[in-house]
Design goal:
The complex is a heterodimer of chains A (about 325) and B (about 220). Chain A is of the alpha/beta class and about 325 residues long. Chain A is about 35% helix and about 30% strand. The two termini of chain A are about 35 Å apart. Chain B has a single domain, classed as MetI-like fold, CATH 1.10.3720.10. Classes of the chains: A alpha/beta (about 325), B mainly alpha (about 220). Chains A and B meet through helix 2, strand 6, helix 3 and helix 5 of A and helix 7 and helix 8 of B. Bound molecules: adenosine-5'-triphosphate (ATP) and magnesium ion.
Chain lengths: ~325, ~220
């Protein structure tokens, strides 16, 4: 384990006993998360995402394996020591989980109160954090008076109160509309940048990963099937699960004629209308068979599959035009 | 009306005794029922600290005392009452059976109020490193506060109606007056006045409880 690894999970297994049946939620998970990462964990419902994140702060005790946080194996700690350690691991939730009978500022002082901080110190820290999340005017409101996005901001402020090294987010934007989701994700990115907090984001939405994460792990059927930089995993997914998540179910069913090309956008080219330019400049027509590209920070990610026109010269013309633009082009007959 | 004025001292004394029995019994019942209800919650299999044997025993005790009709309990525990209070009749003597009947009832009220607390909030508190004690005091009891107040309004009115039954064994209060005059001497007027006073006391106590519950709830 290198020194800039903050969380290192080894051989983690978790099973549940329900109605005399054992359900395996996680099987032999290995995962390393570096300091300063915004690490996404994506998978379909029931894949084991929540269980994995709950095993990180030991809300769920793993059956076997270790969770090394900041150099200490959490699974070896007593309940008392673990309670102490949890102050370094903030957590936010899909349903916000605010204390409904406490004012906003008192929600934020809650973790400080249980840590034994004086009331005055706790209050001034809470007000500072409210400023960070842009809700200074809501200090005396009750959670029921806030919108979903505002509630999540309060939850973020509360999770940051004890100066955690890591922030765990379990579907933190799943109850929010797309616009609010973007705002909350921008806030998380900001917190990561300015406070250096490592962030772990659990989601079932690719768009969330694209928006903020630099690393991603794909979890499928209780196992991590793929892990790496977002741009790598996104442009060249290797596992079936990842392909399904990124490109949908339909891809494999499509059949293409013999001369088809896949153009991969890995973020090195800018997001401009490549295909339109190509057709205009080469004077050749192509048939777009499949396209899934995304614009991330003005860079193009994703892939387009085109059917080339008849005639070898026309085909060469198109391929070399694309290669000249530093796009990766490969011939495909089947895109399974 | 004339009869009410004539007997005003008796009615005042009766109302006072009823309030005294009810409120003191409620207080003591909460001193026993509150910890009992909390223990029921935390030792449950989905609770903070599951302890199966303790949970089974506590549930059994609560269920047994909840299923004995109050009048029968009143008579049955006379020796206990005598041992505690020194006599088996009068207002103070009535408090013993009232507490024994009410404490398990209060425990159930507490249990059901606390059960309404969102498990996500408990989880959030755990994730912040809260101890079990902190979760009980700062999350469960404080988040359940409005519901606990509603529960106490129910408890007070239930205990008050039990206290009226204590009139049968000379427990004092409005129930005693109604029993003595209405049941044994066929004085309908006095009985009716007692009933009206009982209804008023119940309504007032209930409204106070509900008002506090509503005032304390920050969810809307
Ligand atoms: N407390 C529990 N008791 C029994 N089974 C459980 C429990 N918690 C999770 N499981 C099972 O473990 C598996 C993984 O669940 P988990 O909640 O981690 O999935 P998830 O990826 O978070 O799904 P979702 O996207 O729906 O939240 C599921 O099969 C689930 O039924
Ligand atoms: Mg989940």
């Amino acid at each position: 384990m290198s020194t800039n690894t903050i969380i290192s999970i080894r051989g983690l297994t978790k099973t549940f006993l329900s109605n005399k049946n054992t359900v395996t939620a996680l099987r032999n998970i290995d995962l390393d998360i570096k300091k300063g990462d915004i690490f996404g964990i994506i998978g379909v419902s029931g894949a084991g995402k929540s269980t994995l994140v709950r095993c990180i702060n030991l809300l769920e005790r793993p059956d076997s394996g270790s969770v090394i946080f900041d150099g200490r194996d959490l699974t070896k700690l007593s309940e008392k020591q673990m309670q102490q350690e949890r102050r370094s691991i903030g957590m936010i939730f899909q349903q916000f989980n605010l204390l409904m009978q406490r004012q906003v500022w008192k929600n934020i002082t809650f973790p400080l109160e249980i840590a034994g901080l004086s009331k005055d110190d706790a209050k001034s820290r809470a007000l500072k954090l409210l400023n960070t999340v842009g809700l200074s005017d809501k200090a005396n409101s009750y959670p029921s008076q806030l919108s979903g996005g505002q509630k999540q901001r309060v939850a973020i402020a509360r999770a940051l109160a004890t100066n955690p090294k890591v922030l765990l987010c379990d579907e933190a934007t799943s109850a929010l509309d797309p616009g609010t989701t973007k705002e909350v994700l921008a806030l998380l990115r900001e917190i990561n940048k300015t406070l250096g907090v490592t962030i772990i984001i659990i989601t079932h939405e690719m768009s969330v990963i694209e928006e903020v994460c630099n690393k991603v792990a794909v979890i499928d059927k209780n196992n991590i099937v793929e892990c790496g930089n977002v741009s790598d995993v996104f442009t060249h997914p290797k596992s079936e699960a990842a392909k399904k998540l990124f490109f949908g179910e339909g891809v494999k069913d499509k059949s293409f004629s013999k001369r088809c090309c896949r153009i991969v956008f890995d973020g090195s080219s800018s997001f401009d209308p490549v295909i339109a330019d190509m057709i205009l400049q080469t004077g050749e027509a192509v048939n777009i068979m499949f396209a899934d590209t995304k614009n991330i920070d003005g860079k193009a990610y994703g892939q387009i599959i085109i059917q080339l026109p008849d005639g070898e010269i026309a085909q060469k013309k198109i391929i070399s035009w694309l290669r000249d633009r530093n796009l990766s082009v490969e011939e495909v007959s089947d895109i399974g | 009306m004339a009869e009410f004025i004539e007997n005003i001292d008796m009615f005042l004394k009766g109302t006072g005794e009823t309030l005294y029995m009810t409120l003191l019994s409620t207080l003591i019942a909460y001193l026993i029922g509150l910890p009992l209800g909390i223990l029921l919650i935390i030792t449950d299999k989905n609770g903070l600290k599951p302890i199966k044997w303790l949970n089974v025993i506590l549930n059994a005790i609560v269920n047994i005392f909840r299923s004995i009709p109050f009048l029968i309990l009143l008579v049955w525990i006379t020796p206990v009452t005598r041992a505690i209070v020194g006599k088996s009749y009068g207002t103070n003597a009535a408090i013993v059976p009232l507490v024994i009947a009410a404490a398990p009832f209060v425990a159930r009220l507490i249990e059901s109020s606390i059960k309404e607390v969102d498990s996500g909030v408990i989880e959030a508190a755990k994730s912040m490193g809260a101890t079990h004690w902190q979760i009980v005091t700062k999350v469960l009891l404080s988040e359940a506060k409005p519901s606990l107040f509603i529960g106490s309004a129910i408890a007070v009115t239930t205990i008050l109606s039990y206290s009226a039954m204590a009139g049968f064994v000379g427990g004092g209060g409005l129930g005693d007056i109604a029993t003595r005059f209405g049941y044994y001497r066929y004085n309908d007027t006095i009985m009716t006045i007692s009933v009206i006073l009982l209804v008023i006391v119940v309504q007032v106590l209930q409204e106070i409880g509900m008002l506090i519950a509503k005032k304390s709830d920050k969810r809307n």
